[in-house]
Amino acid sequence: MKRSRSNPARTPSENALQVRFWGVRGSIPTPGRSTLRHGGNTSCVEVRWRKTLIALDAGTGIRMLGSRLGEEFRGRAIDLTLLLTHTHWDHIQGFPFFRPAYKAKNRITVLGGHGTKRGIRDLLNDQMESPFFPVGLRDLPSSISIRPLPPSPFFIGEIRVEAIRVNHPGFCVGYRLFTPERSIAYFPDNELAKRLTPQTPVRLTDERLREFIRGVDLLIMDTQYDRSSYADHAGWGHGCLDDVVRLATAAEARRLCLFHHDPEHDDAKIDLMLKHARDLTRRLGSGMRVSAAKEGAVLAFS
């Protein structure tokens, strides 16, 4: 039996660890013909196992997740936990458009760190304040609990969660989520320590990151730049494709998913980066599967 499959048209079994991509782009949404295949919405990934429902980040992709949940639950209460990696706009800007937040019977728990001395509630509230948005966070009728991340590990339903701080401006974390048999890791914004400039603090060494993700079934990771474009963006807090492939193979990840696509990269460019990543994986002697994140794609791990 295959360890995973990608098929948006099929519904995986409830016992499978399911991952669906709703937003895969970094920095800013990129609508248009040239990004249709991979998608232009910013970061949002849905994770399900049994009755536990988690959203990773609330970029513009969370709007479509909310619409889909409304169709699925048809008035039944939705209990969802939103795990934020950080509060840069491309990871929170979809939350004001998340339809389940506008239904009184729904329960939404938001967990995350903060990018300033202010709390995460204040930061989420700011983007919904007048004159930026017509509905304030305090006016949403759903039951919304916003809390700082608890110490790792912690549980969301039956899923065990570990968080680790990463190399990205401000407060930013990556996550690893565990079921008894499978695990996924989500690192949408991270720059490897070996590439950091001397002026940039190292919050996560490459060795510690490698051990944190070792043996993971699915690694969703920031590969915003290729080798040619990375030189102009060193220290920005984003990954270089070659570095990430080498890290993932060294950590014996079973599958790598390229994520946080650069807004300047169209579908053809992402295809070229994917081909390069697969070629490099083979040259390294690894059997790791490599794919590029696409909106709507589903991965299931039984």
Describe the protein in words.
There is one protein chain. The relative contact order is 0.17. The protein has one domain: Metallo-beta-lactamase, Chain A (4-Layer Sandwich). The protein has helices at 62-73, 89-92, 120-126, 206-212, 227-230, 241-250, 267-283, and strands at residues 4-6, 17-23, 44-49, 52-56, 79-83, 107-112, 143-148, 154-156, 159-165, 173-178, 183-187, 218-222, 255-259, 289-292, 298-301. It has 302 residues and is α/β, with parallel strands linked by helices. The protein is globular. The chain starts with a strand and ends with a strand. Helix 6 runs parallel beside helix 7 (267-283).
Any chance you could write out the topology, listing elements then pairs?
Blueprint (H helix, E strand, L loop, with lengths): L3 E3 L10 E7 L20 E6 L2 E5 L5 H12 L5 E5 L5 H4 L14 E6 L7 H7 L16 E6 L5 E3 L2 E7 L7 E6 L4 E5 L18 H7 L5 E5 L4 H4 L10 H10 L4 E5 L7 H17 L5 E4 L5 E4 L1
Parallel strand pairs: 4-5, 5-6, 6-7, 11-12, 12-13, 13-14
Antiparallel strand pairs: 1-15, 2-3, 2-15, 3-4, 8-9, 9-10, 10-11
Helix pairs in contact: 6-7
- H/E element sequence: EEEEHEHEHEEEEEHEHHEHEE
The CATH topology corresponds to Metallo-beta-lactamase, Chain A
Structural class: alpha/beta
What share of the residues lie within helices? 10-25%
- The outline comes out as globular
Q: Keyphrases for this structure?
A:
single chain; 302 residues; alpha/beta; Metallo-beta-lactamase, Chain A; 8-stranded mixed sheet; 7-stranded mixed sheet; 20% helix
